Amino acid sequence: MDHASTTAVRPEAVEAMTPFFYEKFGNPSSVYGYAMENKQALEQARAVLAESIHAKPEEIYFTSGGTEADNWALKGIAESCFKKGNHIITTKIEHHAILHTCNYLEQHGFKITYLGVDEMGLIRLEDLKAAIRSDTILISVMAANNEIGTLQPIKEIGKIAKEHGIYFHTDAVQAYPTQEIRVDELSVDLLSVSSHKINGPKGIGFLYIRTGVKIPPYIHGGAQEKNMRAGTENVPAIIGFAKAAELAMKTRKERTKKEKALRELMIDLVLKEIPYTRLNGSRKYRLPGNVNFSFQFVEGESVLIMLDMKNICVSTGSACAASSPEPSHVLKAIGLPDELAYGSLRLTLGEENTEEEVRYVVEQLKEIVGEMRKKMPGYERIRDYQQENNSLNQSGYQ
Ligand SMILES: *Cc1c(COP(=O)(O)O)cnc(C)c1O
Asked: At what angle do helices 355-375 and 252-273 cross, to 10 degrees?
């Protein structure tokens, strides 16, 4: 129940990749016919991936994943637009691939506005408009949040960016598996995608760069990726990525429907069965497979460990932040007090999960949370006090 962290590679993708490890191991940059075949396969994969976001093949640049695509978009635009200005707008709930890149840019003289979000995790468009300055060069807002699943109004944000002549980047790593993306309709100029979140191999992703957007190369060396990202292409991974994306697009509607049904079942069961629990994020503007709860009077980390002993894999916050003792920056941004942020758990469902599994996990959760609360000194007194004062909004926000 941790599909937002990563997913298994589809057998069809493995099958498509396999010949490129031995029979077809040629370097796509070589001139002889044997390697030309690889070049063709590579370009075919690019076309499939371009089609998946309704872009042109020449606008797709392969990277080592979502993190590199995010780094390239931000540092690249910062460098190429420095003469125009040094102001960038993003949000407080971005993935660390964006936030830590922004911290880095701040150390190099850039000014960053971090937009706050409401209790559901949505930015306010008025805040965005108010933050725009004459020296703003880039707006970067994630399409879907990896912790609480909130879907941002990307089309509206794109429209505002376009009206002001500002480049717009979106980290679409989480949104890509289930949301239909049409780069023209969304008015995005740059968009990051990762393969391992859609049942493709790890270590591959792409950055979409709209034709005409001025951005410098990210890695210098050979002429690969039109001199923009040097280094011999990871052909097997690219082939596997394209196959996974092709199948993900074909199955998108059914997967979305199924994941959403499981999500709703889990939310309903947990809120009904486990008292003093809150759903974090929006119920409506939410990724189909994302569930995020705060359980009062317990630590999410301890619940995670107890679930792990039953071979149930979940997460608190994002995997990349799991070793940090700070509560999640996303939960803080939606206004949760530290106590509730520490008591949070993220469960992300995928197409292979079943209703039976969801029911089993809720049963285990109920037992673990119940046992832990019993052991907490003063739990009943605090509970009664809070009940009287009705201080917890049980169902969260709709
Ligand atoms: C997973 C993730 C990334 C990082 O992608 P990698 O391919 O693992 O580098 C970036 N942004 C979001 C929203 C993610 O969920």
From this structure: 30
pLDDT of 393 higher than 60: no
Each residue's pLDDT tens digit, 237-296: 999 999 999 999 999 999 999 999 999 999 999 999 999 999 999 999 999 999 999 999
Q: Collect all residues with Cβ–Cβ distance below 8 Å to 221 and sequence separation of at least 6.
A: 230, 231
Q: What is the DSSP letter of 206?
A: E
pLDDT at 319: 47
Which residue has its alpha carbon closest to ligand 1 atom 12? 173
What is the helix (H) or strand (E) element at residue 282, kind and residue range?
none
Please report the pLDDT score of residue 390 as a whole number: 58
Any residues with Cβ below 6 Å from ligand 1, and which? 65-67, 70, 95, 97, 142, 146, 171, 173-174, 194, 196-197, 205
Position in ligand 1 atom list of the atom nearest CA 203: 7
* CA-based nearest residue to 98, from 58, 133, 143, 38: 143
Residue 371, class by beta-carbon neighbours within 10 Å (0-12 exposed, 13-18 middle, 19+ buried)?
Answer: exposed
Q: Is 320 a catalytic residue?
A: yes
C-alpha 167 to ligand 1 mean position (Å): 21
The per-residue pLDDT for 383 is: 72
pLDDT in tens, 115-151: 999 999 999 999 999 999 999 999 999 999 999 999 9
Going from the Cα of 67 to the center of ligand 1, the distance in angstroms, rounded, reads 6
Q: How remote is the CA of residue 375 from the centroid of ligand 1, in Å?
A: 37
| Pocket-testing residue among 7, 72, 91, 171, ligand 1, by greatest number of atoms within 8 A of Cβ | 171
CB 179 within 8 A of CB 173: no
In percent, how much of the chain has pLDDT > 70? Answer: 95
Name the residue at shortest CA distance from atom 3 of ligand 1: 66
Residue type, 184: D
